[in-house]
Amino acid sequence: MHYCYFDGPRVMPKKMRHHWLLIGACGWVLLILMFASKLINFNSRATDDYGEKAEMQSWTQTEVKTVKSLPAQTSDRRTPKSSDLPSAGPSAASNPTDWQSLETRRLDLLSSVCQKESLRNLTHTSVNTFVLDRIFVCDKHKILFCQTPKVGNTQWKKVLIVLNGVFSTVEEIPENLVHDHEKNGLPRLSSLTYPEIKERLDTYFKFFIVRDPFERLISAFKDKFVKNPRFEPWYKHDIAPAIIRKYRKSHRDNDNKATAGLRFEDFIRYLGDESGRRHMDRQFGEHVIHWVTYSELCAPCDIKYSVIGHHETLELDAPYILKAAGIERLVSYPTIPPGITRYNQTKVEQYFSGISKRDVRRLYARYQGDFSLFGYHRPDFLLD
Ligand SMILES: *[C@@H]1O[C@H](CO)[C@@H](O)[C@H](O)[C@H]1NC(C)=O
Ligand SMILES: *[C@@H]1O[C@H](CO)[C@@H](O)[C@H](O)[C@H]1NC(C)=O
């Protein structure tokens, strides 16, 4: 089985004609490396990932190659000073001396929370077809990536698509193909046989990215029920009405067009209703991936992941993940727009204002596993 046919030079084939362009680009790349000591640039349409279009606008105007081969420059990269380093999340306690120890602490926390009997229902998931559908395979570089929507995954998928060789640069990947897994050359683990799956789970580099669970839900709500930029009408036309019918408290003002759409409070009540939701979720099918827990998506207690990245520290996590996966010479993660990854408590407070404590507590009860596994603080400001 061989999915990846990446070779460096193919990224820039018309060497002669683009001689000067290439020199210019390399000089530019070096400059960025010197000043930012981070991996480079790529343009990206991350609005899908974040659902925060306004904040992205300045970023999306830059025109830079998304993935390029980095022959010599990688030697310039050094371990950042400890002062540059992130905490394990917005909630981390101590300062790690380097990224490796930070990652070790994340994995240690994960395994200790996985062993807590009281959280067992919220942390353990059998490695079923739903989970195998979430995991993408790059055989050439022996990488498995579990998709956690609303956490910047489109960028990682593009990186892996390029590594898999069907496209040679990220720009060549048509936007609608990124999520078309019949055609994008990024197979899912579920498409393989059991022995093939087992071998890969046992030996490959495995990773996924998380962010604050409630911020992720806000992002999912905005992206699917408010903006819906990818034109996925079923969210507004099928899923929203079903949730409203079951979870809207007062139907009095339904005639008013301005309030006809799904409200955040309806969504929260639906999400917090563990048992009542099950039947609906079966009807919603795969679309629930935008809001079900990380545990349900990636089975982090049942699959031994190599690395867990945090959205809040993605600026540092992304290059290290590439390095840990052994692909830092081949690809880079896009430059991340300033401030976009930062946890924003004001935003969370705004969205949750007016939602009853009872509903927030039920929501937390359902997402508590995700908070605990990945070191995110209980949002006391919403619950007490
Ligand atoms: C786990 O869930 C099952 C049914 O879904 C329930 O019977 C059991 O009490 C739960 N266990 C814990 C520890 O919550
Ligand atoms: C946080 O969110 C609020 C409300 O959405 C917004 O006004 C503010 O600019 C955000 N802060 C940052 C630092 O992004």
UniProtKB/TrEMBL annotation:
Protein localization: Golgi apparatus membrane
Enzyme Commission code(s) on record: 2.8.2.-
Segments passing through the bilayer: 20-40
Gene Ontology cellular-component annotations: Golgi membrane
Superkingdom of origin: Eukaryota
Major localisation: Golgi
Pfam families (alphabetical): Sulfotransfer_2
PANTHER family hit by this protein: CARBOHYDRATE SULFOTRANSFERASE, CARBOHYDRATE SULFOTRANSFERASE 10
Protein name: Carbohydrate sulfotransferase
Organism: Esox lucius
Phylogenetic lineage: Eukaryota, Metazoa, Chordata, Craniata, Vertebrata
